[in-house]
Amino acid sequence: MRPDTPTPRAGSIAEVFGAALTLGLTSFGGPIAHIGYFERSYVQQRQWLSAEEFSGLVALCQMVPGPASSQLGYLIGLRRAGWAGGLAAWLGFTLPSALLMFGFAMMAPWLNGPVATASLHGLKLVAVAVVAQAVWSMARSLCPDRTRTAIALAALTLLLVVPLPGMQVAALGVGLAGGALLCRHLPERPDAPRLPVGSRTGVAALALFGALLVGLPWLAGGRHDPVGLAALFYRSGALVFGGGHVVLPLLRDALVPTGWLGDSAFLSGYGAAQAMPGPLFTFAAYLGAAVAPHTGMGAAVLWSLLALLAIFLPGALIAVAGVALWNRVGHHNGIRGALAGLNAAVVGVLGAAFYDPVWTSGVTRSSDLAIAVVGFFLLERWRVPPIAMVALTVGACLLASIASVSV
Question: Domain locations in the chain?
Fold first, then answer.
């Protein structure tokens, strides 16, 4: 062990929960920004692990499906205080934004009138700016060469030419196969640090991950009930590569064409999620409450909680499996190439979702285009915090609405 490497020691569950809750209340800006917050908190301030160990965990979480920042926090909590520590880390980081998104779902049906309509339309334009910036940023990092750019364009073209439900999975398959064939010579990434996860535990987590991915849809049978809800949110969480924004096309494909929810309500909730701290996956708390039967607060709470647990569970299972298995198989050129191609295809999937439904539903007049473009540059060029961009975009929509009424 290097002299400057922190010595691992057992911590308390309360200590882990407190650190994660602080991050859950203050970490704005999406998964990439979250990793920066985590590095400052867990490496620099608390010294729970070294910079090299942190980098290894980041590399692992970026290579497997699921919400990278939530997986990273969960594994750090697991390392610090065991399995209960991992749960405490996830709960502390997730709870604030989940409660806020549930509250928004409860208020949304009562948001009527011109002011509320303009505000909800502003949230759609927030989604336009945020997804555009995500596509641009991910393209630069995940498609740094011609091969991976071609894979991304192939996935984008497939989805635009054949806009059928479920085609996102086919596009990801194209990326996986293309990467295995064409991206075999990428540099290796750092190993993840040792965690209290044995090979048997890793295999069991991987088996449970696969069993739920296949078994839940079979049990649901296409029904609009709690099992059907769990199936579609679990599937979406299991197929997310490349960051939280990629859950947008997967969830929209699962909810909107099948009649669970309309595009307007879906995009308004997605826009509101940009103003929240913590993981973007807490969008599921809003969606679960929005599609719940109108039988009272209890049903909304249960459906919201079920959607939230279902979308996070596959990422936790695959992270545990990855810890146990990655150091054994992660050096294989074909596996690293396949994951690189998969991440490139993710850019194409998100690009297709940016066009439809984000752009087609949000930009309906020239003033919308101007507001969305300004929002994009606020995020990309001037690095304005997302919550400030949300306030400015919604405010601009309100002003545009007032101006149109006065004319």
Answer: 96-406
